Amino acid sequence: MTAEELIEQLKTLPPNTPVLVEGYETGFDDIVDLKAQEVFRYRKAQEWDGEYQTRDTFPGEGSKAAPAVVILGRRGNLR
Fold first, then answer.
1. Across the chain, what does the average pLDDT equal?
2. Which of 37, 38, 29 is nearest to 61 (CA)?
3. N or C: which terminal CB in the chain sees fewer CB atoms within 10 Å?
4. What span, in angstroms and rounded, lies between the C-alpha atoms of 68 and 65?
5. What are the backbone dihedrals phi and psi of residue 58, each rounded to the nearest 5 degrees, phi first?
6. SS (H, E, C) the chain
7. What pLDDT score does 78 carry?
8. Are 55 and 65 in contact (CB under 8 A)?
9. Between 2 and 49, whose confidence is greater?
10. Which of 61, 70, 71, 69 is nearest to 40 (CA)?
11. What are the domain boundaries of the chain?
12. Smallest Cα–Cα separation from 59: which of 46, 40, 79?
């Protein structure tokens, strides 16, 4: 999803609708920040992995990295 697609979807909601992210293990958390990251699609991801990884996770894949924005939740850093 791109920023434009997200904005268009958010525009359809009532302004006071909470926007959440997945919690550390279960449930959901409030969004606390947005973070710019260089990521690449990791085609060998297992079911428990994210589809995208940072270049520091797999240094050999760094040339494929592109800018993205990650929505950060209150406890997402504990994953």
1. 85
2. 38
3. N
4. 9
5. -135, 85
6. CCHHHHHHHHHCCCCCCCCEEECCCCCEEEEEEEEEEEEEECCCCCCCCCCEEECCCCHHHHHHCEEEEEEEECCHHHC
7. 67
8. yes
9. 2
10. 61
11. 19-78
12. 40
For the chain, the maximum distance between any two Cα atoms, rounded to a whole number of angstroms, is 44
62, pLDDT greater than 80: no
Q: β-pairing, 28-41 with 52-54?
A: antiparallel
Rg (CA), the chain: 14
pLDDT tens sequence across 10-26? 999 999 998 888 887 78
Structure tokens at 5: 């697609």
Tokens coding 14:
């009532």
Handedness of CA 44, 49, 55, 60 (dihedral sign): negative
For 47, residues 6+ apart whose C-beta sits below 8 A from its C-beta are none
